[in-house]
Amino acid sequence: MTQQPILVTGATGKSGRRVVSQLRAKGLPVRAASRDGEHHFDWNDTGTWDPALAGTQAVYIVQLDGTRLVRGFVERAVGHGVRRIVLASGRGIDNPDYATDSGGVLDGLLDSEAAVRESGVNWTISRPGWFAQNFSEGFFAEAVRAGELRLPGGDGAASFIDAEDIAAVVTAALTDDRHAGQVYELSGPHAVTLAEAVATIAGVTGRDIRYVPLSVADYVDELVGQGLSSVDAKAFADVIEPLREGVDEYLSDGVQRALGRPPRTFTQFVEATAAAAGGWHTAATRP
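User: That's the sequence. What structure does it adopt?
Assistant: Structure tokens below.
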């Protein structure tokens, strides 16, 4: 079984590329699939699905937000003989009041989870919360590098999860049947406010970085002034709502259950990122 490749979709993303790296570190064959990566795969081009799935034993599914494409993909995966599926889902999916869902993301996640549960093969669901890497290679990275993070986040906190821990859980689930039928909700070991997060980055890097809390209206106005449509600007503000309301403060035990160890702290994430080549001193990478 280990001679058959493991398919990783979203292989250039924050969790996907780390899953690829960790699987290869174990000496396992990997098919790293994405629109612009080693193996071409595009969720919106079903003609790329079968070549990606052919001959694979397991698959990590990183879905396209706001779509319902996973169900059809899972059916094809089962048809190709895939025996293990790990789905990237989202924390808060069980809470209808988690956030305003103007993009239809929640419905897509719920349908995807139902699809893998009904697939008839071994499945595991990963439900990570806010990625710590949003500060270094995602949503907040450019502003952090510029020295000022302006968001409508108030003084709410989130239990940011290191993407290395997410990848470790996914890698374990892709390679060990003991994780079959498990839903792992993933968080860091403690909640951190945006102000605390930025202060930690500033302290470790020695850079002058600050967090500026904005009202939702002011944030939307700023984004519109930068050229975004009012609809897109409001959608970005909706993304920040869970942070502002503190609904992602709570801690989850998924890392401990899956790996038998606690998750990395936000400070450990910052120290590791600052020590890595580039750190916060280069342009943000692809989310």
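Residues 6-129+163-186+251-263 form a domain with the Rossmann fold fold (CATH 3.40.50.720).
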